[in-house]
Write a structure and sequence with these properties.
Blueprint lengths: L1 H28 L2 H30 L5 H36 L8 H30 L3 H5 L1 H6 L1 H11 L1 H16 L7 E4 L2 E8 L3 E6 L4 E5 L2 H4 L3 E2 L7 E9 L5 H12 L10 E8 L4 E9 L2 H22 L14
Antiparallel strand pairs: 1-2, 1-5, 2-3, 3-4, 6-8, 7-8
Helix pairs in contact: 1-2, 2-3, 3-4, 4-8, 10-11
Length: 336
């Protein structure tokens, strides 16, 4: 028994060293970043997995093992199940990091990247829950008493699922809504949205809730069902390109052409403007004021916000300095 354990340990230790020696050679010669990351993250779990396999094989082959050996065999089986699950979860995490490098969301045209990240993050969470569930189930099935009543448990699973379904309707609805968000994608990571009157961007999409980062750095934690059942604004549904509006209310005497000329001056060499759209229009009139709408474009929503603030401030200053008589006023006509 001891001799077979020694042989098994030597064999699997050799395989382990060969695998990581090969990965180190590849890291030094070809894919340095990828393989160095793999060596760092998977060194411990792979070593534990090989160690458990090396110990369990002689114990399984030793048919006439005593109680201590049986207990040790069961412990090693459970260890292999959880270590293997650990390796799969870490692999999924590493693949997410690879996607973050391959499809960056901090670039101007990031629509495809946000779509991929949204789908994978939700898929990763679903698979992680399933892996943990099956790992615990497989570990429990190594115990003979539990294995013997497994058939009756499966037979009663239908009744249990109905009871659980009624008692956890909201949780199940939230999970299903999270899966719907991954497939239909009414929102994606980094989308700019208006939710319940709050302007912000999608920071996290989880199975049961979504985190919205508000412009003043607050976080709204919104149930996933909200984005299925309610109306909300998504400013970057098709692209990050967005139009910004500035409204000015002036007297009828304002020369609109002069405002257009000043807009051209303000946008010239302005890095906030993407040089696609610039319009000044009279969009409404009342008995007191005339409404001017300045329409400009920017590469994304935060830039559009900065551009709108800049234009609003400088156009008001332009009117104050050059046409103060065109500021909104009330007229009173006195007849003698």
């Amino acid at each position: 028994m001891l001799l077979s354990l020694t042989y098994s340990l030597l064999i699997f230790l050799s395989i382990y060293l060969l695998i990581f020696f090969t990965a180190r050679v590849l890291a030094n010669n070809f894919y340095e970043t990828i393989f160095r990351e793999l060596i760092t993250k998977f060194k411990l779990p792979v070593f534990l997995l090989f160690l458990n396999i090396a110990l369990i094989i002689p114990l399984i082959l030793h048919k006439k093992s005593k109680f201590l050996y049986s207990a040790l065999t069961q412990f090693l089986e459970i260890s292999i199940i959880f270590i293997f699950s650990w390796i799969i979860i870490k692999s999924m995490h590493q693949f997410r990091l690879y996607l973050a490098q391959k499809h960056r969301i901090d670039v101007e045209d990031n629509l495809k990247a946000r779509k991929i990240h949204t789908q994978y993050r939700i898929l990763e969470r679903v698979i992680r829950i399933l892996i943990l569930f099956f790992a615990v189930a497989a570990a429990l099935m190594t115990f003979k008493p539990i294995r013997s009543i497994g058939v009756s448990l499966f037979a009663s699973a239908g009744v249990a699922s109905i009871i659980i379904g009624f008692s956890a309707q909201k949780i199940i609805a939230s999970i299903i809504a999270g899966i719907q968000l991954a497939i239909a994608q009414p929102i994606r990571v980094n989308d700019v949205v208006i939710v319940d009157g709050e302007w912000g961007s999608i920071e996290e999409i989880n199975l049961t809730y979504v985190v919205v980062k508000v412009w003043d750095r607050r976080r709204l934690v919104v149930p996933t069902t909200y984005f299925i059942d309610n109306i909300f604004q998504n400013w970057t549904r098709k692209s990050s390109f967005i139009l910004g509006t500035v409204f000015l209310y002036t007297d009828y005497s304002i020369p609109v052409d002069e405002v257009r000329e000043e807009l051209d001056n303000l946008l010239q060499d302005n890095k906030l403007w993407d040089k696609k759209v610039k319009v000044v229009q009279v969009t409404d009139t009342t008995e007191k004021v005339m409404e001017l709408r300045i329409l400009v474009s920017a590469k994304d929503s935060p830039t559009s916000w900065e551009l709108r603030v800049f234009l609003r401030e400088n156009l008001i200053k332009f009117i104050q300095q050059n046409y103060p008589e065109a500021l909104p006023k009330s007229r009173v006509e006195i007849k003698k």
